[in-house]
Amino acid sequence: MKKLYIIRHAKSDWEDLSLSDFERPLNKRGKKNAPFMSKILKQKGVLPDAILSSPALRAKTTAQLFAKGIDFKKNIIYKENMYEADTGQLREILMMLSDADNKVFLFGHNPGFNMLVESFVNFHENIPTCGIVEIAFECKKWSQINASNAKLISFDYPKKY
After folding, report:
1. Cα separation of 125 and 120, whole Å?
2. Is CATH 3.40.50.1240 the classification given to domain 2-160?
3. What counts of helices (H) and strands (E) characterise the chain?
4. How far apart are CA 109 and CA 29, in angstroms?
5. Is the pLDDT of residue 81 over 90?
6. Coil vs helix vs strand at 73
7. Which of 79, 115, 123, 141 has the most CB atoms lying inside 10 A of its own CB?
């Protein structure tokens, strides 16, 4: 079985209009929500085998805060093609994951993440900032993941608490 945790970046700061979209940092709420949501995963005993993230500052910082919060000791893998990725690009990234990794955290952006989730399971809600969608796949290889072996396990987000 493979488990995928699709995690949208925490709330970003729009204050400095001179920054590009790629360079936007987290705002105060984002810096609070990321550690809070990572604590929830840690309490559930969720520890990934790998963490992949968009290199955009808000996604990168969210991934780093989660890694710290769950005591993840490995390196986070930053994938340039995750920034502004569509479903096809995200699926390609997933297909190339190591089959030795059974639980993977993916940090990135909407609308790509919403479309990715919808391509696997019957899920039509917007993933809010710092939202976590957990999907399990009944297969042994990442190259085998698809809608027929996917099951939505959980959907969590800060405002639930």
Report:
1. 13
2. yes
3. 4, 6
4. 17
5. yes
6. coil
7. 79
